[in-house]
């Protein structure tokens, strides 16, 4: 833990001078770049139109949601069938064990 803290501190300290150099470089070039941008501004003609219709996207989203829902219900159905099979096997095991234990207990008490 202490080793990670030292590595993080070392990394932060080593990146600090790079950050300061980049800030200084932006300050010296910031005025000329801002002026260049102001001189090269071009107005937009016409509005921006969307080329993707919303109807097919909405239907696709509904299809994905319904497919996920049906998949989930199908999975739950399969799990439920597995649980029912395990339960019936357990019931058969318990009844067969009772059948073998009860006669043996009767024979032991009768002697």
Distance between the termini: 71 Å
Binned, the helix content reads over 70%
Number of helices: 2
Low-confidence spans:
none
Mean pLDDT: 77
Described by strand count, sense and barrel closure, the largest sheet is: none
Tally of individual domains: 2
Shape descriptor reads elongated
Give me the count of strands.
Answer: 0
Going by helix content, strand content and strand pairing, the class is mainly alpha
Which range does the strand content fall in?
Answer: under 5%
Encode the helix/strand succession as letters: HH
State Rg.
Answer: 38 Å
Question: Notable features of this structure?
Answer:
111 residues; 0% strand; 2 domains; 2 helices; single chain; elongated; mainly alpha
What can you see in these coordinates?
This protein has two domains: 1-37; 55-111. It is built from two helices and no strands. The longest helix has 57 residues, at 54-110. It is elongated. The chain has helices at residues 2-39, 54-110. 86% of the residues lie in helices and 0% in strands. The chain is mainly α and 111 residues long. The protein starts with a helix and ends with a helix.
Topology:
Blueprint (H helix, E strand, L loop, with lengths): L1 H38 L14 H57 L1
Concise description?
By secondary structure, the protein is mostly helical. It has helices spanning 2-39, 54-110.
């Amino acid at each position: 833990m202490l080793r990670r803290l030292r590595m993080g501190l070392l990394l932060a300290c080593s990146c600090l001078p790079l950050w300061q150099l980049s800030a200084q470089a932006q300050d010296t070039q910031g005025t000329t770049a801002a002026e260049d941008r102001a001189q090269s501004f071009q107005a937009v003609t016409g509005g921006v139109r969307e080329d993707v219709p919303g109807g097919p996207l909405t239907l696709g989203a509904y299809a994905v949601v319904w497919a996920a829902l049906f998949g989930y219900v199908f999975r739950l159905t399969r799990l439920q069938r597995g649980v029912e099979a395990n339960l019936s096997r357990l019931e058969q095991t318990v009844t067969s064990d009772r059948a073998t234990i009860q006669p043996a207990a009767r024979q032991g008490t009768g002697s």
